[in-house]
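step 3/5: co-fold with guanosine-5'-diphosphate
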Amino acid sequence: MAGIAIIRLSGRGAFMAARSLTGDLPAPRHAARRVFRHPLTQGVLDDGVLLLFPGPKSYTGEDVVEFHLHGSLAVIRAMLDALGGMAGLRLAEPGEFTRRAFRNGRMDLMAAEGLGDLIQARTERQRQQALHHALGGASQVIEGWRRDLVSILGRVEAAVDFADEADVAEQTVDEVRRRLDDLTVRMRGALAEANRAASLREGVKIVLAGPPNVGKSSLLNLLAKRDAAIVSAIPGTTRDVIEVMMEFSGVPVILTDTAGLRGATEDEIERIGMDRTGRELQAADVVIWVSAPGSPSGPLPELDSETLWIENKSDLDPTDRSLGMAHRVSARTGAGMAEFFTALEERVLRHAAHAESATLIRSRHKQITQSCVENLLRASAVSADHPELMAEALRAAAHDVGRLTGRIDVEDILDSIFREFCIGK
Ligand SMILES: Nc1nc2c(ncn2[C@@H]2O[C@H](COP(=O)(O)OP(=O)(O)O)[C@@H](O)[C@H]2O)c(=O)[nH]1
Ligand SMILES: [Mg+2]
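step 4/5: write tokens
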């Protein structure tokens, strides 16, 4: 239920359907008040607003109609019944409007993905990142890569034609290598941002770990500001992985509580919990390693991820010992929590730095760009005697870039060859 519901039609029959509900149609892109009537019974369905967007300058690239209706289920159902009875109309599949927009060249794959992210965005900085993609910011960067690549390829293809003139080929290959290196540097720069960008899109993964009974679950509850995890004096209480979603200054965070790690246990379920902890630690962006006065210090797992050291239960040990890198806190009294929170926030923000304007934000983007860079390196390594091998590697790279935007266009490559290098033929 909502104040207003919008039903959208797209495709060849859209205007016809609008006409059969309202009689006369308003001018394109002008909102007009209309009474909508059932085409067979002429019974009034609703009193609302009608908008027409003629293709190809519409969202989908086809004729699009919007009915702005009162938002009740009964009104929507009556309208959908009336529309469903018309030949050539059916309910859209999920995402079908955007799929058509993509197919009709209204947006590329990067922008369509950005739009999907925009619909899912939970935090302010996720919104900015998604919007950057949806508005074509990333597409523009990739379009630049594609243009360069196509132009370099054109140059190499021409060298293939003159392969018997050794000095022409050699000069071309030298110049091409310079331009390839430049492009490789730019792509690697984008790859260097990709992990931070993915952290913003998916959430920075923070894992609380340490020996049993040191207060990990208590800290999780304090950070989450609710009792998400069970706290008890019995070691081994947390057996499964518990996740809570949080936000630090617009960056989403997935905070994970884990079963405490100790050397040996008789308990089968606790052991399975500890195995899971190991897997969570491998996937973490930031690990909060918690200890407490007198807690066993090991076994400390090998960690690739960044670690924040916490000694909890400072209330039990009032001597002001220096603990090196560790923050002393007390989940019970709240002592040291503000400083800990600030340190954690600083790590989170660092993990998502500059992520709003990053070009590559999904693992799909990263994998394809890595493959593209490999193909560029392969092309660059070819000796000047074999421009045809270089051209082959560059075509593979161009194909990769095409996979990013969803536009794999051979004509493009041919165009560039004929435009720049057709000599008197
Ligand atoms: N004195 C004191 N006890 C704490 C503190 N934090 C947690 N505890 C207690 O330590 C026990 C274990 O806490 P829990 O959060 O379940 O630890 P976990 O096993 O690491 O998840 C519980 O009885 C808590 O009430 C603290 O800062 N000071
Ligand atoms: Mg616990």
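step 5/5: annotate
The longest helix spans residues 166-202.
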